[in-house]
């Protein structure tokens, strides 16, 4: 019911996202999207391009008078660096294909494999689309989904919990209500989007050390989602499981190499008697769990608890410290280096993670409840919550 396509190149004129299936009557303004775009461009450790671009979403269809119409929503993000690349990236025969040709693949990027797959002798055709710049369009699209979830009382909060070897204190996997507002405020005040100020300070120092050495850092971010009704996703077919779809969405983000739900990989070293969340019942509350090692998902479905996701990001592969590679034309070895790069983009990846998770959750909500208008959807979700509570 919900579909999204993004288009555009890193140094092209713009990035575009087309969102089909957004229900009518959803309050949506560009300023709401721009706030998340600014978060994506922030975070300590970013490189020089963030000084060039200041992303703004232009809504060119599907919204009138501040409300969605039910038609496709089109979002356009202009690339301000386009004026410096218009001759190189021109779509017509006037394009300057001779300058800025890329024949030297960077280790850790899509360059070489993409060139082999699509038959490109100039790998600029690969790197322009495979670039993490594309995530700006996904953040814009995911933010529309976040707006829909907001209307249903579903709140997402992400934070960075590790950069390099520096880890924030572990958060208890309990199933109690948490103050999402306070957590989001603490994250917003941190230069690395980490709610723990001591850990954040250590992360900044770790980034400074890596930058001084011409190196880069990865890390881990986590996303908590509060207010999900039970029953999103399904056990009936494996491609319908909520955790499988969320894991796929997070893994689709550039540089993400691992995803876990709840206790995740630590569950492998925990006995079953200590891991599984026992079930309790209270007439005023319905069924509940006192622990949350499942991360809010059981049997491929949301169970009504707090959804907890984590994703691990590898260090940015574009380095000031040269790595060895081979020119695809001359077949001669060389050392790959760059002039401009991020030292650490984990905070930005956290924002992208929130966006792709929001999109998948919105898809799951509309699959279960249907509806062409926000009024219908809100009524159905409210009735279902009452039903689940009194089951």
Can you describe this structure?
By secondary structure, the chain is α+β, with helices and mostly antiparallel strands. The protein has one domain: Chorismate synthase AroC (Chorismate synthase, AroC fold, 4-Layer Sandwich), CATH 3.60.150. β1 and β2 form a beta hairpin. α1 packs across α4 and α1 packs antiparallel against α9. The chain has a 5-stranded antiparallel sheet. The chain contains 10 helices and 17 strands. The model has no long low-confidence stretch (mean pLDDT 93). The protein is globular and about 70 Å long. InterPro entries: Chorismate_synth (IPR000453), Chorismate_synth_AroC_sf (IPR035904), Chorismate_synthase_CS (IPR020541). It is an enzyme of class 4 (lyase). This reaction introduces a second double bond into the aromatic ring system. Homotetramer. One of its GO terms (molecular function) is chorismate synthase activity.
């Amino acid at each position: 019911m919900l579909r999204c396509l993004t288009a555009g190149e890193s140094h092209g004129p713009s990035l575009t996202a087309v969102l089909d299936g957004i229900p009518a009557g959803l309050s949506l303004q560009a300023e709401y999207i721009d706030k998340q775009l600014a978060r994506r461009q922030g975070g300590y450790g970013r490189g020089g391009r963030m000084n060039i671009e200041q992303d703004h979403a232009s809504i060119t269809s599907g919204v009138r008078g501040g409300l969605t119409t039910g038609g496709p929503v089109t979002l356009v993000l202009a690339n301000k660096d386009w004026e410096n690349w218009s001759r190189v990236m021109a779509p017509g025969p006037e394009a300057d294909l001779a300058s800025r040709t890329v024949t030297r693949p960077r280790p850790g990027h899509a360059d070489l494999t993409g060139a082999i797959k699509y038959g490109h002798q100039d790998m600029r055709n690969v790197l322009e689309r495979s670039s993490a710049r594309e995530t700006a369009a996904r953040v814009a699209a995911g933010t529309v989904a976040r707006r829909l979830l907001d209307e249903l009382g579903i709140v997402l909060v992400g934070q960075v919990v590790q950069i390099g070897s520096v880890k924030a204190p572990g958060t208890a996997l309990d199933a109690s209500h948490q103050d999402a507002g306070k957590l989001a405020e603490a994250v917003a005040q941190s230069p690395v989007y980490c709610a723990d100020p001591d850990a954040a300070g250590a992360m900044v120092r770790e980034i400074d050390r890596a930058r001084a050495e011409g190196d880069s850092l990865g890390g881990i971010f986590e996303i908590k989602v509060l207010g999900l009704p039970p029953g999103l996703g399904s056990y009936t077919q494996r491609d319908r499981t909520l955790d499988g779809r969320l894991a796929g969405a997070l893994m689709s983000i550039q540089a993400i190499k691992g995803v876990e739900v709840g206790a995740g990989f630590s569950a492998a070293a925990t006995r079953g008697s200590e891991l599984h969340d026992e079930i309790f019942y209270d007439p005023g509350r319905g069924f509940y769990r006192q622990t949350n090692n499942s991360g809010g998902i059981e049997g491929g479905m949301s169970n009504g608890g707090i959804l907890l996701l984590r994703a691990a990001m590898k260090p940015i592969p574009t380095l000031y410290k040269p790595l060895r590679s081979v020119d695809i034309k001359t077949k001669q070895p060389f050392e790959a280096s760059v002039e401009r790069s991020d030292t650490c983009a984990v905070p930005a990846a956290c924002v992208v993670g929130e966006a792709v998770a929001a999109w998948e959750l919105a898809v799951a909500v509309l699959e279960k409840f249907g509806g062409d208008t926000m009024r219908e959807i809100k009524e159905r979700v409210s009735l279902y919550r009452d039903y689940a509570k009194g089951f």
